[in-house]
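2 proteins. here.
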Amino acid sequence: MNRDPLQPDPFAGLPPGAPDADDGPVPTLLAASWEQAEARLYPTVLEQPELYQRIVRLVRATADHLRLLGPGTSALVEAAERGPHLVAAVSDDSGVSPAGLDLDLVARAAMAMRYREVRSEQALRRRLRRIAEGRAAEVGWVVVEESGDPEGDPFRPYSRLEVAPATGFGLLVAAAPDDEYRGVTHSIRTVRVDVDTGEIVEDPDDAGGTTYPDAAARDAAAALLRSRRDAY
């Protein structure tokens, strides 16, 4: 898969149960413009080491400043409206010269860097919220994340993270494209979710997951794994 199945889809709408817009994605075209800036900014200066180093330092310093503005998407969208001015201010504070740099591209590249962090932070908060809700309801399992086509689509990878709120034991149920993008591979991996931080930890007893011929067999196996864990 080209995208981490546990990362929220940047082109999706507001996730179910999201308390406010800060828990959702930024507008699609805006996020795409940030990624495009990254693609344009670095390759053009690879053969100019001094310029490349200044760009890297200024992008990171700007992302550090964006981090101080808050954990949600609204602060990031607001900052994007004054991107070049923000980079100029960061340049003054950090001592990194902006000479010869496109400050708009630098700003958007920093937005892209920070947005990846924001999406990860949002995912952690959603996991913790849904685990807490499941524990309060005294249910055995909760689906904390789900995206894609459950039946399997090479161009819409599927992932579903199910967690036992009492223990943090989890199942990552997935359908990923095969090597030729003509079909999909269905799989289940056992993982553990830290119920204090939301971080996912690989299960040392899982040798890399088990594959299945189709979605029905995969989901039947997931149901069996849940029942076995419940019997412990």
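next one coming up
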Amino acid sequence: MDEAIRAAQIMVVDDDQDTVAILAHHLRREGFVPIEANSGAQCLKLVHENEVDVILLDLMMPEMDGFEVVKALRDNPETAEIPIIMITARDDLDARAEGMRLGVSDFLAKPVFRRQLAGRVRAQLEVVETARNATAAMDRLEAVKNRSQH
């Protein structure tokens, strides 16, 4: 129940501090709690220190690009299910195809507008909630089935 009360925590990952500040401001205005990261490495560190509900991830970053971050997140069972929205100025089909192959949940092209951002984040939060509800329902059905067999 506490999770439903807690404001969703959204990690913003971009090497451009101005972009991080703008996206964090948009998120705060929509009632979310932003967690700011300026690199892929910082994202991977902070995701283990915070309860992150959705990650907004820049594709083109130095040292570790967005694809490498997605791969690291998806390879770790603790972070594999966190929805990732790739934010990029590079809005081409090859980038989208690679992102989808790696497990990116959605894409947003820069510049990102507040309402569009809020809608996409809420959609990912709803997908997670629907999956949780489906899992809980399956668990209840399994428990009923097990009780009826005994």
